[in-house]
Amino acid sequence: MDGQKAQVEDTADSQVPARQRSLFLRLLMMGGAIMLVSQIVISWIALKGFEEELGPELNQKASAVGRALSTELTYAINELGIPPGKLVGVSEYFQHILESNFDIQYLALVDNPSGVMFEHSVPDKLLDQFPATLHESDGSHNSHSIRDIGGYLDHRFPIHFKGDSSAALHVGVSSGNIRQQLATIFFEVIAVIVVSMVITLELLTMFMSRRILDPTAHLQKVLEAGSKGKFSYRLSLRARNEIGLMVSSLNRLLYHLEQRYQDFQFELRELRDAQIDPRISQKIAALKTQASKRYGFTDQFSVIEKTPALIRVPFFLFIFSEELSRSFFPLFVSGFIPVEPALSYEMMISLPITLFMVAAVVATLLAGNLTHRLGCSRLFLIGIGCAFAGYCGTFLSDNYTELIIWRCLNGVGYGLIFNACETWIALHSRAGNRAHSASAYVGAIFAGYVCGPSLGGMFADHVGQQTIFLISAGLSVLSGYAAYRLLASSSSGPGKNAGSAPNARVFGMRPWAILFSDNLFISTILTAISTRTTLSAFLFVLIPLYLNELGHSSTQIGQMMMLYGVIIVIGTPATSRLADKIGKYFTMTVMGATLSGLGLLATLASDHLGDSRAVLISIVAVGLGHCLILSPRYAIMQQIVYRYRHLIESSVSIGIYQFVDRIGLIIGPLLAAILIQQMPYANAIAAIGAIVLVAITLSAIIANVGQSQIKGESSA
Asked: Which of 7, 469, 513, 646 has the most CB atoms within 10 Å of its CB?
């Protein structure tokens, strides 16, 4: 009954801001559409201009390289007297030229009687076509000419030997290379558009919620209470906008209304005291009592209700800073590995990632009690301090040991911040919208996943990988400032945790025993560990290494990884509302884990799909699967926290859950290192998929044992 009553109250409260939020969503969609169209048009115009300029620029470059090489070859042949066939080291010199000028496809020195004497990177289909061009007499035999040969723009430069121009230097530019560069630029533009849209919408959502939606919803509640004669509070809002002016006007009206009411009460008292007839005096007293019951006033100020969404922007900025290095971090670590490593190469790459997760897990274990003592905002700021120091230290690192130490400090900040955010969400969520409240937290994480890897990969190609950590330090400062402004004035301080009963709690190992006696908790933990293992092994380690082996740049790797975050950001709000509507939280987590596990098996079909396409399918499947898992999983955890709130402090329950949950983050890099030592990357990814399927099967079996308990939680 209590749960049903609370749900009814939550539904009634949620109806108040629903109308404003529908207007906000329409405005947000309209603004986003305008931004998207304008950026697409500007980008299309820029790409068209670039396409028109790129072809001539590449031809000019090929001409410059060809003239310089032909001059050097002519000097060696004529001035030094070396016949073309007797030249030494020409192919190696061609290789050096191509490595310095990646826009040029091939170089070849061709002689009429001998054919192709020296070449580098010439496609096989062109080798037989070069001698034929020497016999062509189109008036350009003795001068630089350009022909289209087999899809390549071939620049031919004659080489004179004893007055004869039977030899020629061929410099090739691929038209496909031009298209590839345009495609690369196109995808970079798309990535920048997506990232800028996500950042803009995150900041716009925060501004609208903080400055417009939440104040107007609170204002509406006050006005509705006033229509019933309950002028209980005055509003406390300092905003230099229309809402702030409205609040100030309303407070003045409430003050004048209260003064008139007090004058009315005073006049009634005087009128009652002036009466001689007791019956008239009693009627006036009854009227005064009735007015006191019907109307109520107070001088207290009402503050805007704390919501889970307050944590979103600070958390998003922190995740953004952490994810900037995600697309290249394994490659970055490889530059610090000693010449004679103590462990295998794969283990040395995974060790900083693993120890980062270990530090995060240890910090999580300690953060439960710290959150209760310090409050969410203070713990968040402490975590930001650790993260800032870790980023600066990583930027200044000179060796492998220093890198590990500073990354461990980063991990401590990571664990503290995650605990502060998850505790904030749990303390300010209602029974009827747990999954939707969790979507604010999940959305912030994966909005960072969208922005970080793609921008980090592009920046790394231009300013260097190490500089990215300095940028991350600056973003962490912005995150701390946002947390200070948004959370400090409304933080749950010591002893003020909402939803926690004032009775004595159990401590020590007793909370662990209570939670692990719950089948639902064990099933949720198994699903969480498999999800975390997939994230850390597949996305954090295997994807950067595998795609790098396939020849993709840091920018391209970041763009492919960004797709995972885009799917989560777009899909999480819808799946969270669906989960709250149907109440089948655990069923949705099983479906999501099964989908992600099957998606990882797609790499077994790389021979048919293509390596890169198979990886892309796996990323999409994992993203869709995690859409179904994340918000429902946090909703289940909030149910468990609420159930045991009289026995276990909420922050302690969340700390235990996070500690066990992050074991998957530790297992993932180690598992990835072990697998790629034994098998190819594609098979290692498929093996992780099989492990996920086994884990979710065990989770379903354990949950089936306590089916009645799950049904009870679902109905609640």
From this structure: 469
Start-to-end C-alpha separation, the chain: 9
Residue 571 lies in a domain: yes
User: Starting from the edge strand earliest in sequence, which strands make up the sheet with 145-149, in order?
Assistant: 115-120, 106-111, 164-174, 152-161, 145-149
Domain co-membership, 346 together with 296: no
Q: Containing domain of residue 75, as a range?
A: 48-180
Q: How far apart are CA 523 and CA 700, in angstroms?
A: 7
Domain count, the chain: 4
Query: Parallel, antiparallel, or unpaired: how do β-strands 115-120 and 106-111 relate?
Result: antiparallel
Among 133, 152, 180, give the residue marking a domain's end: 180
Q: What's the pTM value of the predicted model, to 2 decimals?
A: 0.62
pLDDT digits (tens, 9 = 90+) for 480-492: 888 887 776 544 4
Please report the pLDDT score of residue 350 as a whole number: 80
CA 514 – CA 521 distance, rounded (Å):
10
Question: 106-120 pLDDT, tens per residue?
Answer: 888 887 666 778 888
Same domain, 520 and 636: yes
**Which residues does 566 contact at the CB level (< 8 Å), separation at least 6?**
194, 450, 623
Q: Which two tokens stand for residue 69?
A: 């090489």
Residue 637 near residue 433, CB atoms below 8 Å? no
Query: Taking the mean position of all CA atoms in its chain, how far away is CA 552?
Result: 21
Q: Which residues of 70-95 are buried (b: 16+ CB within 10 A; e: fewer)?
A: beebbebbeeeeeebeebeebeebbe
Q: What is the pLDDT of residue 493?
A: 43
